[in-house]
Amino acid sequence: MTIKEQYQYTRSRFLEICKPLKTEDYSVQPAVFVSPPKWHLAHSTWFFEQFVLSKFVENYQVFNEDFAYLFNSYYNHAGKRVLRPNRGLMTRPSVDEVYKYRDFVDLKMLAFLDNNPSQNALKVIELGINHEQQHQELFYYDITYILGNQPTFPTIENKIELNTLSSQSDFIKIPEGLYEIGYNGNGFCYDNELGNHKVFLQDFEISNQLVSNGNYIDFIEAGGYQDFNLWHAEGWDFIQENNIMAPLYWHKVNETWFQYTLNGFVPVDKNKPVTHISFYEAFAFAEWKQMRLPTEFEWEVASKKIDFGQLWEWTNSAYLPYPNFSKAPGALGEYNGKFMINQMVLRGASVATVKNHSRNTYRNFFHPDMRWQFSGIRLVK
Prior knowledge:
- By secondary structure, this protein is an alpha+beta fold.
- It has two domains: 146 residues; 206 residues, paralog of FGE (formylglycine-generating enzyme) (Alpha-Beta Complex).
- The protein contains nine helices and eleven strands.
- The strands form four sheets. The protein has a four-stranded mixed β-sheet.
- Helix 1 runs parallel beside helix 5, helix 2 runs parallel beside helix 4 and helix 2 runs antiparallel to helix 5.
- It comes from Bizionia echini.
- Keywords: Iron, Oxidoreductase.
- It holds the Pfam family FGE-sulfatase.
- One of its GO terms (biological process) is ergothioneine biosynthetic process.
- InterPro entries: CTDL_fold, DinB-like, DinB/YfiT-like, EgtB, Sulfatase_Mod_Factor_Kinase, SUMF_dom, SUMF_sf.
């Protein structure tokens, strides 16, 4: 696809996945880490207006002077903004106004793309397309949390469905050696994937599949959430303080485990991969199995031999810069670098990841207590 076609496809896809929503669904923020769907739609639009149209189109007039304040996320270079916990307090602008904002910016962007934009502009547009794809995945995390915390567990039409795991569980041997890590191609990647470098790895064995719900129920029933020996001190404090005894969205009803998904409140399928777990829980499960989580370098080396893409997979690696990492000047330099502290790396992709958005060098990252994303476990020994 041309970059114009990529832009059109990405923008129209967000509208398509929002079609099942009711108007009341758009503005809800039940937790600090959740953003309302309306905010995602507007923020991803503001990105193009702020970093493309306002910069590269002469005499461009913004749609609404207030929107930069309302829909900036964390770009200090772009000015003041509504604090993240307050995104759900905005009943105005209305949903209709946000959709008009998208239409306005799309018309301006398509005209700009038809006017032979510079290479610098095209690079920012490509980043903006990938940025919107990230927000489309975050939308699925957020709407699952929004609906999954309502008394009636409502459903919406969606294509988010985990596949049953293979019964052929095995471990793949990876020999020790010096391996190349990081992105080294000609396509798009984020700056945190750059800094191609070599890493020496000891030999290891990695599971050919993710941990199943059935395996995780065994961990629960064996007292995994009651045995402090399995947990980091911080993880133990986290589950004690928050009374966590199972993955997010799991509920025990008449001695049977159920879970909420966008397809409803259903019995836990023991043959599907366990998801919505924190790094703390993934680590504790690995300890219980007397194994461990892979480092992000082990995962990348092994990625050509495993089937990934159902869930983002926790690694035992802190989110740190690669050698020679450098931030772009200005606001776009805030995209990744300033978050390289107190977070853990996840690798792979998930069922909510936009097609062609994943690659084996992609470095996702979350705080170790986060559970609302589509996360899973792969073991190493």
